[in-house]
Task: structure prediction
Amino acid sequence: MNYSELLAFIVPETLLVLAALGALLIDLTTMRGRPLNERMKWAMGLSCLGCGVAAAACFLGAETTPTGYLDGMFVFNPLTRLVKIVILLLTAITAILSVDSKFTEHVGEYFALLLLATVGMMFLVSSENILLIFISLELLSLCLYVMTAFNKQNIQSAEAALKYFLFGGMAAAFLLFGLSLVYGLSGEINLTKIAAKIAGPKLDPLLVLALLMVVIGFGFKVAAVPFHLWAPDTYQGAPLPSAAFIASGSKVASFFILAKVMIVGFAGAEGSGAWRGYLQGWMPVLALVAALSVVLGNLAAIAQTSVRRLLAYSAIAQAGYILIGLLANQRADGLASVLYYVTTYALTTLGAFGVVAVVQERTGDDKLSAFAGLSRRAPLVSFCMMIFLLSLAGIPPLAGFFGKFFLFKSALFIQGAAQPLGLLWLVILALAMSAVSLYYYLQVLKQIYVIEAPTGAESAKVTPLARTILLLLALAIVILGSAPNLLLEPLTSAIKAAGF
Result:
């Protein structure tokens, strides 16, 4: 094996590791004893620089790895390059949103974990080897567990981290056992070779068990019902930047690798979730999980008084919508719809958490009542929150509307299929639950724009950096909704180049 060639391929990941070590070293040496705000700015600047240089390395590096390179342990092509750049962008935004936070004095450790989690995500999306997929997933998960527990002054942070860790440990056990069964049945650890070995007219009962276990493992990562129990407490108890990162960057990586494992690794074992056309495989399992997620997520969100918990149940519902795209028989269209939606959702939820951070910093609370009269105290921030929430609800011309439209279209109109409208039942259910979601999003906007602010409430002061980031995120949501081809065309080209 040529190690210099491998090092050339993993330059972006190497640069991020160096940035993580640099943030840790600088904070513990030259910045020691400086004010917290100054240390945060230095660590944020170094993290953003590392993400920027890594993104440039993705652009300037080799076009693609050779076919069969390292048995699929590391795959670099236009699609993985695009997904990596999205992850790096989300990491940089999270770092910027962390600057005004005061939840920890361990600045270097926090930013090092943020960057190492990003390294885990980048290796995760670059692998088609089940061994490295599991290792990368665990690197990501361990970083997220610690980031959830980073607020030592808040007992909810420790409680959320413990629940996240316990549920994550069980999910990892299910995933590892499922992957070991796949290896036992196929004798391969490369996804493409696994698909060639397990293909057949009838599914082996052990393969069905393996499929269920893999779905359980990945279902936890994407917070889909019934593997969602960790999400509400984690979103509410974790420090806000950590919760935002869990809701954005990790979702992009998790959905991408879930799509790759199912579409590539279990090709030939799809089955069907069509109405009255059920066939054994992973599609009916994901169809059931998607249906449960959109129903429970949206209905449970109605009862929430905490905006962070509301966003958690909203994320569960959004996971259900995204899973619908994986059920499309036209793999390229389905994967493009999934990646478009999860990317725009990640940007939207980062913005929403950014606004919640502004409110919680000023009021010490994230309840609906804390947002009362926000439009009079911070009109620009309120307008951005309106853009984010209406996009999550799927209102045109925002990115959330086109994302849902593209997801549902790819699942419905399947050319040449025996039942081209077989998933109509699931799309109708998702549309109905989208209408329900508008109710609880409007509840937040009602507090912001209709309810009067409490007597004596001060104007919400927002730093210029936070205001700029929120405005740019809102602008991106409007532009990507009005001109979706700006993202969709690069995605479609990259997916075709990757052979989907």
Notes: The two ends are 28 Å apart (CA to CA).
